[in-house]
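Suppose you are handed a protein chain with no further information: no name, no annotation, nothing but its sequence. What can you learn? This example shows the usual starting point.
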Amino acid sequence: MDRTRADRGDGRATLRPGLGREKFRRLGFLASFAVGMAYVEAAVVVYLRLLYYPDGFHIEAALAQSVAPSNVLSIEIGREAATLVMLAAVAWLAAKRSWWERLAYFVWTFAIWDILYYVWLYVLLRWPPDLMTLDVLFLIPRVWVAPVLLPVAVSGILMVLAAVILKRT
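A reasonable first move is to predict its three-dimensional structure. Written in structure tokens, the prediction is:
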């Protein structure tokens, strides 16, 4: 277990559980990857909206899945799966020890990617206008729709969960 030094108050240092410098550094590198990946994902969505929603994105049209051809929807599902594979691959590479550590790094990276995806969409499109705006969250295994607040809140919880797991491993 990583340990960090803490002063006991009597001038002697004791060791206490903590994330440690190495895990903290890895979280930073994974966060950098997630920020970049979120931008790429947001850029793809900007292009898709320009192509298929030139008059503005409407959740009703997205749910009908009639705007984009079926082969484009298949490609989108493949892109979502590829994103998950990439997030899992960097988490696997970052972890040294256990399945739990790999899971924590994946959850951390996924959470940051998910939050920053919406940040980048707002920077690029000024969308969503607020956190209660409905969005198509995912297409795997079926269409998921919810207010933007839901994935952002869940991602915040996942970041805390990842830190707890890493502190215990």
